[in-house]
Design a protein that fits this description.
It contains no helices and 10 strands. It is an all-beta fold and about 180 residues long. About 10% of the residues are buried. The chain is elongated and about 85 Å long. The strands form 3 sheets. Strands 2, 4, 6, 7 and 8 form a 5-stranded antiparallel beta sheet that branches. It has a 3-stranded antiparallel beta sheet with strand order 1-5-3, with no helix packed on it. The chain has a two-stranded antiparallel sheet with strand order 9-10. The protein starts with a strand and ends in a 33-residue tail after the last strand.
Amino acid sequence: HVNVMVGREQALQNLKVNIQIHNSTGTDAGQAFFVKISSLQNTSGVNGDGTVQPNTTATANWLIIPSTGAGGVNPLGRQYGVKAVISYSIGGASTTINTFDALITVHPQPAIKLEYVLPFEVFGDEPMTEVRESTVPFPLGLRVSNVGAGMARKFQVQSNQPLITDNAQGLAVDFSLLG
């Protein structure tokens, strides 16, 4: 988070905070992260249109989420530097400040792949005949693979009854999960 304190008689205007992320070699790594403002206090914004009133402290917090692969494959992870470039004006005079880097470590992440497995043939009522054939229960499997470099902890799958969202042929459909 970034705190900006104004102790003057004039408001701080045109507040802009640019979050910059770089890897250990200094190369821009911002594309490997999703950065979103999670809260603002005592300012209207940090995109160049923000204002902070005199004798006030403004606080801005960001949520920084690494993309899949940002942690690499080494169990120790990858280190990144995160800093803020803060610009503003007071009484028409513009100022830019760079914060020091905050070092963060991103560990390898899991990447979960889900594959549903059905038998080749499923037996049920033939909708185009007048005879009602009995249905035969069949197994529906779920294969879970971790294709990422990180460990998946406390993994759970929750399932509800399936919902048909499109039935273009208007077929009679009735099913339920048995367990």
